[in-house]
């Protein structure tokens, strides 16, 4: 893992770029900010996966879609989660039917004027983007599912499968015929995963399930196409974070002590462009915050169970937990900072 390949996309871009056909009739675009959107051409119409956040890019994407499949309707827009980078561009693909997990519907139903203002304000350093974000319209899912849904149109089959982990809404689009899965923000390659709404155990489970799909290629929520093997790094990252947070918890450290104590260790796992360092640090801390609460619950539960005799404590006195294997032997592999990313 010492020589990490360079990523072929740039974060923070405001420009446009051409779509890439990753399989016949299956396209993605890695040039947009906020997500890697995709679309699938069927004989009956198009199925989109995620929508770009920045209006100029969303409109560009729609133009590219219409150029590729003139006259075909957009049957569905599937949002892999409810985050701004994946679902806020829905308004640019109407008329269509938006489909997402039931929890995404609930989260997006809570997007008030205040939320729109926060999105707007988050671009205060980029006025050319900010001025595009004055008319945000939240387009909620019309159709929701909780476990899975199957779309069969024009000779294509797309399975929408709940995965969780990253958020309680995160779902993937699996095309069994093409052996390609759009895995949303479960997979991060060369980037720190966003864990502020995470369930870390569920996330590890989701990564393992993705590896058993039989996929040949994965489209992550951000960045270029990758392989199922690319899921290992983020899994190790999460396992490492869980282990270190548990160390802190058991040493009697508070959540804030864990946050400030661990942020440096976590930063080493993925490249950190200088201009985004502060933001990434704050995201890492919100992830540690989340994991700390999880570990706290696990430890309290294990403590209560062992008091009740439900668990046999191991010889070292530590509670028995449903901890995924391999948490113990993790050493981060520092990576070079790529300032231009
Ligand atoms: Zn997300």
Explain what you see.
This protein is α/β, with parallel strands linked by helices. The chain has a domain at 20-236: 4-Layer Sandwich (Metallo-beta-lactamase, Chain A), CATH 3.60.15.10. The chain is built from 9 helices and 12 strands. The protein has helices at 55-68, 84-87, 102-109, 113-121, 127-130, 200-211, 231-250, 255-267, 277-307, and strands at 20-23, 26-28, 38-41, 46-49, 74-78, 97-101, 143-145, 148-153, 156-162, 171-175, 180-184, 217-220. The strands form 2 sheets. The chain has a 7-stranded mixed beta sheet with strand order 1-2-3-4-5-6-7. A 5-stranded mixed beta sheet has the order 8-9-10-11-12, with no helix packed on it. A hairpin with an 8-residue loop joins strand 9 (156-162) and strand 10 (171-175). Helix 7 runs antiparallel to helix 8 (255-267). The protein is globular and about 65 Å long. The two termini are 19 Å apart. Residues 81, 83, 86, 166-167, 185, 194 line the site of zinc ion.
């Amino acid at each position: 893992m010492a020589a990490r390949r360079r990523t072929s996309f740039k974060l923070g871009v405001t420009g446009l770029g051409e779509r890439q056909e990753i399989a016949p009739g299956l396209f993605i675009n890695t040039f947009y900010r906020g997500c890697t959107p995709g679309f699938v051409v069927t004989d009956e119409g198009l199925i989109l996966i995620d929508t770009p956040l920045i209006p100029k890019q969303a409109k560009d994407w729609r133009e590219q879609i219409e150029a590729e499949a003139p006259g075909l309707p957009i049957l569905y827009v599937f949002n892999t989660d409810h985050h701004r980078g994946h679902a806020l561009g829905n308004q640019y693909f109407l008329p269509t039917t938006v489909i997402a997990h039931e929890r995404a519907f609930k989260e997006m139903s809570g997007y008030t004027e205040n939320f729109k203002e926060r999105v707007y304000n988050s671009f205060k350093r980029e006025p050319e983007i900010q001025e595009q974000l004055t008319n945000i319209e939240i387009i909620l899912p019309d159709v929701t599912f909780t476990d899975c849904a199957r779309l069969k149109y024009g000779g294509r089959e797309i399975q929408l499968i709940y995965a969780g982990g990253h958020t309680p809404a995160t779902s993937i689009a699996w095309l069994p015929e093409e052996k390609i899965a759009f895995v949303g923000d479960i997979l991060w390659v060369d980037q720190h995963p966003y864990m502020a709404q995470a369930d870390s155990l569920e996330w590890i489970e989701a990564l393992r399930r993705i590896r058993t799909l039989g996929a040949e290629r994965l489209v992550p929520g951000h960045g270029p196409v990758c392989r199922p093997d690319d899921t290992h790094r983020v899994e190790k990252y999460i396992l490492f974070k869980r282990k270190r947070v548990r160390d802190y918890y058991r040493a009697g450290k508070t959540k804030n002590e864990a946050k400030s104590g661990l942020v440096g260790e976590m930063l080493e796992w993925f490249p950190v462009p200088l201009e985004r360092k502060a933001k990434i640090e704050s995201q890492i801390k919100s992830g540690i915050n989340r994991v700390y609460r999880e570990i706290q619950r696990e430890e309290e539960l294990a403590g209560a169970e062992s008091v009740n005799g439900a668990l046999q404590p191991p010889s070292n006195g530590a509670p028995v937990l449903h901890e995924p294997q391999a948490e113990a032997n993790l050493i981060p592999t520092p990576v070079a900072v790529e300032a231009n990313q």
